[in-house]
Amino acid sequence: MRRFMKWTLGIGALLATVAALAYAWFVWWPVHTSPPLEHVDEYVWLDQGWGDGQNAALRQRYYYTAQGTSMPQGASDGAVRYSWFVNPVTVNDGQWVELKGTLNIPNCANLTEFTIFAEGPAAGVDLYVDDVNISIPVVTNLLSDGTFESAQGSWFTWGSGTLAVTSARAHSGSKSLLFSNRVGNGPIARSLMGIIQPGKSYQVSMWTSIGGAASAQVNMTQAIGCDGVDSYAWLVNPVTVADGAWVKMTGTLTVPNCNLTNALVYLEGPGTGVDMYVDDAVVTQ
Ligand SMILES: [Ca+2]
């Protein structure tokens, strides 16, 4: 009996020691040797006013930086990114084929490399290039009143509030257009009648900001009238704009080939009491 008790106590002590060692090894040690969690400076949510293009500055900084890594993937000046600007085409022996594309140069502080190359054929296949030509397209802003540096121009609202040029904020220059004292959800609008033509497409962009709230949703809308019948569509879906931030709204306005009787673009979304700003509006074909 004593012998049995001794064995039982012995095995119990052994199990307790093993359990204590296991706890120390699997729980206590990892917890006490893990580095503290890194301080989070800023939370950035997906697609909150990043801009549409893959070269939008905020999209480059956040989207191309994989979470949990410190590898520069477009976020730093040193990262190199590759993209096809002409997809593969079949070229027959003896034939010359024109490869033509648009180069978008990223808006980075320190451009360290920009190389174009023709590639594709495997080993043993000869590759010729000739007549390489690079030109800078002339882009004409069809709006003459998009900067608000001198006047409000033809911008208007049908909402209730005060629409006026302000020096309080500017995306570029020193002034922008401010819609303040807003009651209801009135927009900041511009008619494009006499500027755009039926059957053609245009790029419309403008920068917006809000005030009087931590953030607000803003969208860009088109109103197109054919034979007196207006139809409405969002050129840019609602995006969250934080107080003080400037967000670029860019959309393609496709004008139907009709008897055009109305052509409006406008920013809207924020409710009563929220200030809306617009600056640097550009319409190009
Ligand atoms: Ca301005």
Question: What would you note in describing this structure?
Answer:
The protein is of the alpha+beta class and 285 residues long. It has a domain at 160-284: Jelly Rolls (Sandwich), CATH 2.60.120.260. Helices cover 13% and strands 29% of the residues. It has helices at residues 2-33, 57-62, and strands spanning 160-166, 176-183, 188-191, 201-211, 215-226, 229-242, 247-254, 260-268, 275-284. A hairpin with a 2-residue loop joins strand 5 and strand 6 (229-242). The radius of gyration is 30 Å and the shape is flat. The model is unreliable at 69-77 (pLDDT under 50). The protein binds calcium ion. The site of calcium ion has 10 residues, from loops.
Q: What's the gist of this structure?
A:
With 285 residues, the protein is of the alpha+beta class.
Overall shape: flat
What is the name of the CATH architecture of one domain? Sandwich
Low-confidence stretches: 69-77
- Please give the number of β-strands: 9
Assembly status: single chain
CATH superfamily of one domain: Galactose-binding domain-like
What are the distinct ligands in this entry? calcium ion
> Could you tell me the strand content as a percent range?
25-35%
How many helices? The count is 2
CATH class of one domain: Mainly Beta
Helix content: 10-25%
What structural class results from the helix and strand content?
alpha+beta
Average pLDDT works out at: 88
Element-level helix/strand string:
HHEEEEEEEEE
Trace the largest sheet across and list its strands: 1-2-9-4-7
Cα-to-Cα separation, first versus last residue: 100 Å
